[in-house]
Predict the structure.
Amino acid sequence: MRQTKSFLFVLASLLGLAVATAVAPGAVGRASGAEAAQAGADKAAMEERQHPGQRSPLPIPFATADGPAPNNSPTAAEVKSNEHSPVPVGADLPPNRTVGEWLHELGDSVVRRNEPSVWLGFLIAVASGLVVGRLSAVGLRRAAQYLRRDGETVRSAAVGSIAGPTALLFLTVGLAIGAGLLTLDPTWRWLSNKSLALLGTLTAAWLFFNLIGVAEVALRRGAQSDGSSLDRQWLPLARKTLQVILAALVLLFVLDVVFERDIGAWLAGLGIAGIAVSLAAQDSLKNLFGSMTIIFDRPFLVGERIACLGFDGVVEEIGFRSTKLRTLAGNLVTIPNANLVNGPVENISRRPAIRRVFEVLLSRTVTGEQLARALEIVRAACADPELAGPIGLDVNGRPQEPIATISAVSPDGFVVALTYFYRPPDFVECNRHADRLLVRVVSDLRSEGIPLGVIRGTE
């Protein structure tokens, strides 16, 4: 859904650009001079037969290189002389004529030249393309939902990705068939061909835009089968990058091929402007290169718990500019990537074990025998088969029993410290194990009549 919304935004931008380019002065003036001259000659001959000796102005003005042409239609000699010289059609409005009058004349020239049966065929072709495209899209989406019943697969993503482009493709085909039935002036024929070319380009762009998402699904499933976290880190970034590049290429293609604009000067200007933008956006570029450093150096992955810049939480997303961190309190923190790269990052999820330290404060009234017995009770609790399993190794994975010692003597009493490493490094299970161990130690100490002080536990 997010990919579709992104593409619809790009599609709306391209359509807006297309409309602006099509109605700009001189845009329709790209029709060939031969077609314009032939149409003018046919119109002049018809008017000559109806009113001998008189010539009416053409409803579509012709412009020359020096300016707008007069309202009178060209003579046969003028048509013959201009037969091989391209003359733009409709480049400018004639004098003393409003845009509404000009559009009205253009519409009349299209309507009068086609019979009602031809218009009926045009409407049937367009309606058929619209209906068939809609039904095809609905069928493909239902097929994708059926294939997705056991989870998202490459096939379900591929079938779902072609639903929208298929609907647009059938609509474009219907419009092409209907436009082919109409008899159009060169201006309208040029506009029709350019519109169909634009729709075809957008259909192909939409399809490739969705196929990028299909490739992401395929790579993600491959990474999951290998037990890798690669899909959660660089695949979203790669998808966004490819989609931005595709949108830029489609825009340049539409300008260059569909509307025949010279984009060479634009690209040269962009190169100069890029230097100024890079100087003005140094912080954004630092964050961008910081994201690339995070991807390749991989100090942390999405889903891992890290501590940095005073925040402790789980990484939810690594973007171009920033990394989103969900703290243990549930807050979402956005940290610029440049700060993450330049500052220390503690990856808590990659610790092989969780180190736990318990400090049991015995009353200062305890005797030596009670103190020795307290150490035995703590060690015996750690040796219990129900509790000893996950705490029998050190941080490097070598066998090591939990260490129970008298760590300090204070005016309040004697401090018995218990140190061990819990594996695997599951924070929740480690706390549950610590609760059971603490209950066991306290119960045994109280049953022996050993007076207690304060019990403190740290991680």
